[in-house]
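FIELD: query
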Amino acid sequence: MLRGVVVKAYNSYYYVQTGDKLTMCTLRGRFKKERFSLLVGDEVEYLPLDEGKGVIETILPRRSMLKRPMVANVDQVILTFAAASPDPSFVIIDRFLILAELSQLNAQICLNKIDLADAAEIGQIVDLYRKIGYSVLETSVKTGQGIDELRRQLYGRITVFAGPSGVGKSSLLNAVEPGLSLVTGEISIKIGRGKHTTRFAELLPLAGGGFVVDTPGFSFTEFADIVPTELARAFPEIAAAAPACKFNTCLHHKEPQCAVKQAVTDGCIAASRYASYLEVLSEVQENRKGY
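FIELD: result
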């Protein structure tokens, strides 16, 4: 048997990448009876048949699973934002970071279009998030700044690119891997054709090893499933201060003797981060009336 990674699932067929070879596989019947959900990103062992086809016999244990989109074994999320045009927003950056943290995925911030930005303003953003512990990469497709470093970060890993529209994700990926965004567009048109068609995530292979996840239109800013008491752990600096609160159920909003609020007052937690926390907390509480 051969081992590979499921890079696409479509119409009950699973396309498995082994080196440079792509094999269209079906799933052995016992998995269907068990109602096992095979995901893009799953590592499998398959029995090759004739004409580039195969049968998946073994599904290897998952290292991780991302719920939106459903992708297995994701190693990292590159959260991409524009340094200018459109201007970056602390709130938007924080909202994307929340879901990455709650999915227990390594998140890195990429500020693209750095050539258009005011250096002092971007420096404040970079300093803020690096102080919290996030890696921040500054890139420009126009000047080539940061492209080689981004490429090194991608090789050998399964990476989800996420971020608002208009930040230059496709151009950035195309700079890293020439022709990649063109391939993404062609695949999207093909899969999206016809009625009642489900849009699946897809892994796109990189020349130096590893994959990026093709998820056009994918949003990382939904909070319907978050429990209010879990939100603080999506903010590392808030989670670090929270144990000193008087109440172990403290939501760091209206409660007395709150160590988090004191840390904001003392400047140990950025006011912008606390404002983002309160905004999302309000949404979560509204979604869970009666909690």
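FIELD: remark
Residues 182-198 have pLDDT under 50 and may be disordered.
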